[in-house]
From TrEMBL:
Post-translational modification 4-aspartylphosphate, affected residues: D58
Organism: Paenarthrobacter aurescens (Arthrobacter aurescens)
UniProt name for this protein: Response regulatory domain-containing protein
GO BP term, example: phosphorelay signal transduction system
Response regulatory domain mapped to chain residues: 9-122
Keyword annotations from UniProtKB, A to Z: Hydrolase, Phosphoprotein
């Protein structure tokens, strides 16, 4: 009989070294023991040797393609297979699932979305019994929770013509979620981040990120500010083997122009007063993944009646697909009378009774024009 404390094994089949390294980091954060394979044949052998429970599989490999790898794996393995592809056409996606894959994700991918897909796959399996509670661990989690709560902004943003709110509900294990904001002479600055990991380690990394992001507030250009901050943060992350996903924005309240940088977060939506919501795409990987990484800034216009909605992966985890997630977040964003109402409803999308991670939401709504 296999012990419930036995580690889970995963195999990453990917020929690109940078992408392979990112996948390993993401899976290790989910407590997998990871084996790397740069091609299809070595991937098949690695799964056979490790009896892996999860395989991430690139379609384009230098020897045999991912479709063939998937077919061969299904001859002896019932591991969950998550295929990664840069191909956009639907035929490839369907073929990948027909060969026995359990799910697919497009490149470039968000680490948050990848982790959510993996958690969704393993929710199909029987949940092992929880180990007896460790008193020392409980004390550490309690201290981490205090640190995490202290990172939330104490001041209320009061911008004429805007309604801004945030909400946070920690999980039992305490993660690295936090949001921060403060007013400026022309609007506001906003940071929404998640340090990978749990407990005090993640909470302390989050505290460092908050302090560093505040320290660059006077740097005029958002891309220069973010680049300087990320270089400082990366040196700390190197020591801990962690990384941070982040959404950082600056709002000019008079014009409604929002300048932003998304570093691997990928869970911010622009919900216009008219028209469909749009998910804001990441400008690059999380902070701490690649040395010397630069993230370009983007802009959007918050017109009267528009909203910016940012949530953590705790909300994404509660949905079976990214499409369902976006549909429900947009619905909630349009139904609340105030930003506080919307934040409360967003947290309810991931009920506390089933949520496995922190759940966090921030809403910036530009009030509609009421003048006739």
């Amino acid at each position: 009989m296999v012990s419930t404390s036995s580690p889970r094994h995963a195999v990453v089949v990917e020929d690109d070294a940078d992408i392979r390294g990112l996948l390993v980091l993401v899976l290790e954060q989910l407590d997998f023991v990871v084996t790397e394979a740069p091609d299809g044949l070595s991937g098949v052998e690695a799964v056979r040797k490790t009896n892996a429970e999860l395989v991430t599989l690139d379609i384009n490999l230098p020897d045999i393609d991912g479709m063939e790898v998937c077919r061969r794996l299904r001859e002896f393995s019932d591991a969950y297979i998550l295929m990664l592809t840069a191909r956009a056409d639907e035929i490839d996606r369907l073929n990948g699932l027909d060969t026995g894959a359990d799910d697919y994700i497009n490149k470039p991918f968000s680490p948050k979305e990848l982790q959510a897909r993996i958690r969704a796959l393993f929710r199909r399996a029987r949940t092992p019994a929880a180990p007896a509670e460790d008193t020392g661990q409980s004390d550490e989690l309690a201290r981490a929770a205090v640190v995490q709560q202290s990172l939330l902004p104490r001041e209320t943003v009061r911008l004429e013509g805007y309604d801004v709110a945030g909400a946070f509900r920690p999980s039992r294990s305490v993660g690295g979620d936090f949001y921060d904001w403060y007013q400026t002479h022309d609007g506001m600055h906003l940071t929404f981040a998640d340090a990978m990991g749990k407990g005090m380690g993640a909470a302390l990394i989050a505290a460092t990120v908050r302090a560093v992001m505040r320290s660059v507030a006077d740097t005029p250009a958002i891309d220069a500010a973010f680049g300087s901050a990320s270089a400082t943060i990366t040196s700390d992350l190197d020591q801990s083997g962690s990384f941070v996903t982040m959404f950082h924005a600056r709002l000019d309240s008079a014009s409604g122009t929002l300048s932003y940088i998304d570093a691997g977060h990928g869970l911010a939506l622009h919900v216009p007063a008219d028209g469909a919501a749009r998910r804001l795409v990441s400008a690059g990987p999380p902070v701490g993944i690649l040395d010397g990484q630069l993230w370009p800034a983007s802009e959007l216009e918050l017109e009267p009646g528009d909203s910016l909605v940012i949530v953590s992966d705790g909300v994404l985890d509660a949905h079976d697909s990214l499409e369902e997630f976006q549909r429900n977040v947009e619905k909630v964003a349009r139904s609340g009378a105030t930003s506080d109402d919307v934040c409360a409803a967003l947290l309810e999308l991931a009920p506390a009774s089933t949520a496995e991670d922190d759940v966090t939401a921030v809403v910036v709504r530009r009030k509609p024009n009421t003048a006739l």
